[in-house]
User: Which sequence fits this backbone?
């Protein structure tokens, strides 16, 4: 798909505001008033012919923002970062000094929304195109449409979630259900937004003929085709799988890829992850035993090979095996300890709930502190309480036998049994010593019966 192919049909354009702002950036010596004019000009000149409406969706940076700790970690070493004034005549600083601070981005988005909805010249430049503005005003829920020189509030778009990724979904649904759009084009490159779009294209937006996400100037993702290829079941489980595999508002299991998680999700039965977070399912926010167990089975599948015998195993057993059979001693290569895993599942559950309630303007959400987060001025993830490795641990002997455990088996030489830490896993299927023990036990039992 190219921009030219989008021409000639009624389009609704939904823009991730910060994605666009970072692309347009600042020019040297440019005032914020000039920036507001240039941004609007860029947006109007970068839309397909026939675009009826533009939805400018902004992030919010409140204290209950789940990305607060991530932003603090990411920009901890930004020495020049400070809060700048954002006003008509104030000259914008260098982008590298401005964007690391959330307060600066919040002030810029507020300035743009106020300028575009109040400046008469800018409003007239819209022509017949409607401009929806949401998330950028100081009032948390304020959302307006600028059309033919007038500004009106839009009650259906008064959204209480913080992320533009979820606001994009609400505006897309509004475009389809209220304005009868046959094609929604989204300007965004965030993985969270793309995965949410796939989920909703298979559910509430399954009757929408086309949805596209433009990630670069000439790159378009066909969301409706992606949803069709994955199928309804995997699309419904996608938000939880994506959250488990790592995103901005959850932990990141190191050295595992989205591709691996998606492949393994086809090999493991995860109906509880499919249902979780959906408004028509009872107890949508309860992290049940089934949810935890299926998430654990999926994680084990990601960290193991098909011929490994770890189905139903504890994470501690898998962790020991990986540590003793890996040339690297880097603990990040290991699956999480049980304590960290349970916290990760809680945070993944919350992220899934946020994704699957994106179509509700003001969802009734449980406190984030119920899902592995603590609130002390800002939200921070609760750390695990157990050590990642025992404080005192003697050097364990483990064999590296791949095909049976015979003469060269280190465990056999020491006269100790093979166990989960060995390459053979102490498995009856792989370890000839275990097979022998099982056979002897069976023979002994038969003898007892005969006698």
Assistant:
């Amino acid at each position: 798909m190219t921009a030219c192919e989008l021409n000639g049909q009624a389009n609704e354009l939904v823009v991730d505001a910060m994605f666009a702002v970072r692309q347009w950036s600042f020019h040297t010596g440019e005032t914020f008033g000039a920036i507001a004019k240039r941004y609007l000009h860029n947006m109007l000149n970068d839309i397909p012919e026939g675009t009826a409406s533009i939805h400018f969706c902004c992030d919010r940076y409140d204290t209950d923002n789940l990305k607060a700790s991530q932003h603090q970690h990411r920009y901890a070493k930004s020495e020049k970062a400070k809060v700048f004034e954002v006003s008509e005549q104030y000259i914008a600083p260098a982008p590298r000094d401005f964007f690391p601070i959330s307060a600066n981005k919040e002030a810029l988005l507020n300035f743009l929304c106020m300028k575009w909805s109040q400046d008469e010249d800018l409003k007239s430049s819209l022509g017949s195109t409607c401009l929806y503005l949401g998330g950028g005003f100081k009032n948390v829920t304020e959302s307006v449409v600028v059309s033919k020189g007038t500004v009106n509030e839009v009650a259906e778009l008064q959204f209480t979630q913080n992320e533009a990724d979820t606001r994009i979904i609400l505006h897309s649904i509004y475009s389809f259900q209220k304005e009868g759009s046959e094609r929604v084009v989204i300007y965004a490159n965030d993985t969270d937004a793309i995965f949410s779009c796939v989920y909703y294209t298979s559910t509430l937006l399954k009757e929408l003929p086309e949805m596209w996400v433009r990630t670069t100037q000439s790159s378009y993702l066909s969301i409706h085709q992606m949803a069709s290829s994955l199928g309804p079941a995997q699309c419904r489980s996608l938000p939880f799988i994506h959250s488990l595999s790592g995103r901005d508002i959850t932990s990141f299991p190191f050295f595992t890829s989205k591709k691996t998680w998606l492949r393994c999700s086809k090999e493991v039965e995860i109906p509880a992850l499919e249902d979780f977070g959906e408004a028509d399912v009872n107890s949508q926010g309860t992290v049940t035993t089934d949810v935890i167990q299926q998430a654990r089975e999926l994680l084990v599948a990601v960290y193991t090979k098909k011929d490994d015998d770890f189905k139903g195993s504890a994470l501690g057993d898998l962790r020991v095996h990986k540590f003793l059979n890996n040339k690297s001693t880097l603990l990040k290569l290991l699956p999480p300890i049980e304590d960290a895993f349970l916290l990760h599942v809680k945070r993944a559950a919350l992220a899934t709930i946020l994704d699957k309630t994106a179509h509700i303007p003001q969802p009734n959400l449980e406190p984030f502190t119920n899902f592995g987060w603590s609130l002390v001025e800002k939200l921070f993830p609760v750390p695990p309480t157990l050590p990642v490795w025992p404080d005192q641990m003697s050097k364990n002997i483990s064999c590296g036998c791949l095909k049976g455990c015979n003469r060269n088996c280190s465990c056999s030489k020491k006269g100790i049994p093979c166990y989960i830490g060995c390459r053979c896993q102490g498995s009856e299927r792989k370890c000839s010593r275990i097979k022998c023990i099982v056979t002897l036990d069976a023979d002994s039992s038969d003898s007892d019966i005969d006698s």
